[in-house]
Amino acid sequence: MTAFKNLPAAPIAPQRPVSDTHHGTTRSDPYSWLRDANWQAMFKDPSLLDADIRAHLEAENAYVSAAMADTEELQKTLFREMRGRIKEDDSSVPAPDGPWCYGIRYVSGGEHPISFRLPREGGKEEILLDGDREARDAAYFRLAGSSHAPDHRHLAWAYDDKGSEFFTLKVRNLESGADLDDLVENTGGGGAWTADSGGFFYTAVDENHRPAHIYYHRLGTPQSQDRLVREESDPGFFMGVAESRLHDYIFIAINDHETSEWWTVPADAPEKAPRLVAERRSGVEYSLTEGGDVFYILTNVDGAKDFKIMQAPVGAPEPDNWTEVVAHKPGRLILSISAYADHLVWMERENGLPRIIVRQRSTGAEHAIAFDEEAYSLGFQGSMEYDTETVRFTYSSMTTPSQLFEYNMRTRERHLLKETEIPSGHNPEDYVTRRIIAPAHDGESVPVTLLYRRDTPLDGSAPCLLYGYGAYGIAIPAAFNSNCLSLVDRGFIYAIAHIRGGKEKGFAWYEAGKRAHKRNTFHDFISAAEALVAAGLTRHDRIIAEGGSAGGMLMGAVANMAPGAFGGIIAAVPFVDVLSTMLDDSLPLTPPEWPEWGNPAASEQDYQMIASYSPYDNVTRQAYPPILALGGLTDPRVTYWEPAKWIARLRECSTSGEPMLLKTNMAAGHGGAAGRFQRLEEIAFEYAFALKVVGRA
Predict the structure, then answer these.
(1) Of 226, 256, 577, 635, which one is the catalytic site residue?
(2) Is 635 a catalytic residue?
(3) In the chain, where are the structural domains located?
(4) Is CATH 3.10.20.30 the right assignment for the domain spanning 138-284?
(5) Highest mean pLDDT among 347-356, 487-496, 677-686
(6) Engineering a disulfide at 192: which of 243, 295, 321, 652 sits with its beta carbon 3.0 to 4.6 angstroms away?
(7) Of 486, 549, 580, 654, which is the active-site residue?
């Protein structure tokens, strides 16, 4: 029985069918008109949105407001709770770099970070960048981070004020506090400084929002005089740029989802042509880390599916000179590497749990930093400095707030620098975290991490929020999330399904959930729901499924495949119009996504495979649970029309009488609101929907 009563009539999108034919198959799309023909210009200027489309999105927003009107006080309560768990005047522990220590902090009531520094030997704080001041009067504002020059006199910083991820880059004089006249627009955000601090390299995005060019900008010159360093002609590859820890090299990285190519430029000779390290070979990935006179190379070359570590002289980094440092071990996935004067450090994951390995470079002796909890998360922060014995890492679990440690790689001493404070109070002993194993449809074992209050009845009556992602090899960590406590404290079980498509169980776990094997991802999530019910923890009508972006595609797929397995579904910026998007190479992410999903324009097999699960194309006349979809008008990753079309088709086909709700943020993109408290309002809305569906609003 629906929890939604006395709703007004839902908006009905007019049907204006448009047909397309590929590989002899013709399909009709009645809602393709919801895609603005002028979408590229609209992303930069949302006022250009077609009037009919705007009217429909605003009608959808009015409908969802009416459907959720009785939860307004609950939303406010949830927001206050979540805000109460955030230390409003929080500050990072400043990290040393040369004569300074750099950090960020927030002020009470502030939405955006303030960058600051302190003299290393002690002294007065200097504010470098006040995010709240820069964001004033902006409907949307997001800082893309900042980087100080090697001589500590300038700061390159970038911002997006549309949500469309076209970042503007500015340069601040840290002695005067004023921005220079230098203004670099349409960047990917951030810059890589040259050794003399006189300029920086940056990524520029093209008219299709693809980072396809690397430029060099000399301070004091207009953007029109910036020198093109390298460009990428293949729309399937994106470019990025970074500087090495020693400020000796600029790295230009070119990648799709399964192939890499790196180039180097001496940071003290920015005019030199980039030098190729290893030409791209389909399916071969590698990345560089500088280690003094060598480059360390993390790579899957020669069948090292879970990656190995190689090294090569910086003066001759070609593959013929690569030698093995850490061998490949199947099932032990090496995630990242960092090099310091005396130590090599890498993050790895085995049996679903992360650990940090420290190796002394001169002797090869190594040891692990690991923890004993059943499920936990590690993050390696390292150090901004190369000649150091100390690095930093973070630890948390579903019950334990994040802790920042300083670790001496030589003595193995561990020092707690900071523990995330929960101002409203938090007792880890009140909660239980554990893992269950869900048997998959094909005999695989899917880990599911659970969090619940110790006093939650485990008799099937508890509601459950089941979260999943399962794409791009991204592993969802069992990390502390203070927001979900607002559900857990109301009797929810919070569950994360570690499904195929991520790398929780190694690279093979990722491969088994991509392209031709994509349906495993969806089956795994359904199996996780079934396992929760089989264990007597909850019931199907008490499970709220949640996922965003590629996880939103997961939501759309399981809604079609097993609508009765879930009491409700939350799909944030959901990638649900997969077939149409993968056929359209003008969209920003389409060519780079072909290795992940397949290329339906070039391959009939890929076309039929994607068509078999694409959520929008597989909506049928059946009883769907209540569904909440959330989109962002200027989202370049998952365009607003995907959830808009999907909800229109669901509303047309569903026989359950349950509402299909669409909420579009008309002033934001993929990540929703950028401010730390503004984002909490959106989470409170999603949680209020979950509570309403299970009768606990």
Answers:
(1) 635
(2) yes
(3) 18-84+427-693, 138-284
(4) no
(5) 487-496
(6) 243
(7) 549
